Design the sequence.
């Protein structure tokens, strides 16, 4: 940031614009720090037990755990895994017209932040959980890696739901 300020001082035409952008970046960083501090307080306070359970699932870190807990609320409000799966947006979507039906992959109707966070978590999870890695390798034999990771993220969601419903920490390496 200091280097950019020095460069801005050299160019009179861009100086004001660059300094305004730097000020905006500074304010955004301060806001991000406030949000992260509040999330830490919630994770260590009200959500201490459920956040620890969620973070026991491989690939789920503090930010993803808190995003999941704050957006989902009470996990038992979803009657089944399919209801939770539909909410997150991992359910398949089809386009049908007359007798023609086309598979369009996963639905566009989703909780975009939560779905993205779970997909990123799935990439991390296959690095540390041998059962998920084995599932991913099996899936990539018949589909592209990006499609396979969606299925791994769905497994991760199923495991996260089970951990939160039963109140038991995740056991790494168990195939389900």
Sequence:
């Amino acid at each position: 940031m200091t280097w950019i300020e020095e460069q801005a001082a050299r160019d009179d035409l861009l100086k004001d614009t660059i300094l305004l952008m730097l000020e905006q970046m500074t304010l955004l960083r301060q806001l991000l720090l406030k949000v992260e501090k509040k999330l830490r307080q919630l994770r260590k306070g009200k959500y201490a037990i459920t956040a620890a359970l969620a973070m026991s699932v491989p690939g789920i870190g503090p930010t993803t755990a808190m995003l999941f807990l704050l957006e989902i609320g009470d996990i038992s409000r979803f009657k089944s895994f399919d209801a939770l799966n539909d909410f997150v947006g991992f359910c398949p979507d089809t386009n049908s017209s007359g007798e023609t039906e086309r598979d369009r992959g996963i639905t566009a109707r989703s909780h975009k932040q939560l779905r993205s966070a779970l997909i990123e978590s799935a990439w991390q999870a296959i690095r540390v959980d041998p059962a998920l890695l084995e599932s991913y390798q099996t899936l990539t034999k018949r589909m592209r890696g990006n499609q396979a990771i969606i299925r791994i993220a769905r497994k991760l969601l199923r495991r996260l739901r089970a951990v939160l419903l039963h109140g038991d920490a995740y056991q790494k390496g168990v195939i389900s």
